[in-house]
Amino acid sequence: MAWIDLPGDEDSPALRRLTKRYRDEGRAVPSVIAALKPNPRGMRAVLQMNFAITFGGSVLGRRTEELIATFTSALNDCFY
Q: How distant is the alpha carbon of residue 42 from its chain centre?
């Protein structure tokens, strides 16, 4: 397994803003998002897209979207 040294959640003003939501909820930034920390502009773009189109961003509703995400993750052997 590869190990990547990532900046901390508060290592820059941009990362402080981007990770605030997770810190306020008392949880870690998901690894798939945290991998983008070296590029805060890219991380911000991915988070904006994610918030706009997933989990409540469609007519399906949060419950159905979560079920689809869970099923897709299981099919792809994703365990996160």
A: 12
